[in-house]
């Protein structure tokens, strides 16, 4: 059965040199390369890719992405936000991310809250206030689980429920699911709230099997569970990132029941 899941690229890999080129892609060439060479149809933009750039650069990048039919979908920050320690700084960070997301044309911002039972109430209060601010207009906020150590997916779900509303969700990852020891169960717990799921790719063996977790089982299990949103391919390997993403894309096409990209 064919799935309508959109395949997108976590664009952090583009900060690494292109194989055989010795230097990374030019900033404004990323959307065209993603659409034409990688045959993916959306971009997840890491903060590191746009940090320090003027608003005009972000707007030009958005225009290039639209022309390439590879829109900017989500602005993502990997560094955890400590809502207890940072206080008002956490709210300022959220507002800055939302402003940058709008310039890029993203409809989502994904963050990794430093989430514990003790910090949960502060996280809920700060995010509720941020989502009611002017900066949050038309922006969804996706919460990512902590990676090292692996965060509690149940606590993340409870926090999302406490925040409530239509503009809060989750962005789970395959790497986090494997680190919890729960695998597919952790993904399924967060899938109903997921604006996107990060398909973490560490590499493939000579037989084309993913080396660190059950890529096929996770994807098939999510499709059977009814997940229909976005997959964001995130290259975490050490070898040729272009070849690795192409292998991941081809396998995802097979697993989702189509051999051609979404058009």
Topology record:
Layout: E1 6-10, H1 30-36, E2 43-46, H2 47-50, H3 55-67, E3 72-76, H4 83-86, H5 88-104, E4 108-111, H6 120-131, E5 140-143, H7 153-163, E6 168-170, H8 174-180, H9 184-190, E7 196-201, H10 215-225, E8 230-235, H11 241-255
Parallel strand pairs: 1-2, 1-8, 2-3, 3-4, 4-5, 5-6, 7-8
The neighbouring-strand order within the major sheet is 6-5-4-3-2-1-8-7
What's the mean pLDDT score?
92
Strand content: 5-15%
CA-atom Rg in angstroms: 18 Å
Q: What letter string, H or E per element, gives the SSE order? A: EHEHHEHHEHEHEHHEHEH
Considering DSSP H and I runs of 4 or more, what fraction of the residues is helical? 40-55%
Please give the largest β-sheet.
Answer: 8 strands, parallel
Number of helices: 11
Structural class based on helices, strands and sheet pairing: alpha/beta
End-to-end separation: 18 Å
Stretches where pLDDT is under 50 for at least 5 consecutive residues are none
Overall strand count: 8
Q: Based on CA inertia axes, which overall geometry fits?
A: globular
How would you explain this protein's 3D organization?
41% of the residues lie in helices and 14% in strands. The chain has helices spanning 30-36, 47-50, 55-67, 83-86, 88-104, 120-131, 153-163, 174-180, 184-190, 215-225, 241-255; strands at 6-10, 43-46, 72-76, 108-111, 140-143, 168-170, 196-201, 230-235. The longest helix is centred in the middle third of the chain and has 17 residues, at 88-104. It is built from eleven helices and eight strands. It has an eight-stranded parallel sheet. The chain is globular, with a radius of gyration of 18 Å. The mean pLDDT is 92. By secondary structure, the chain is of the alpha/beta class.
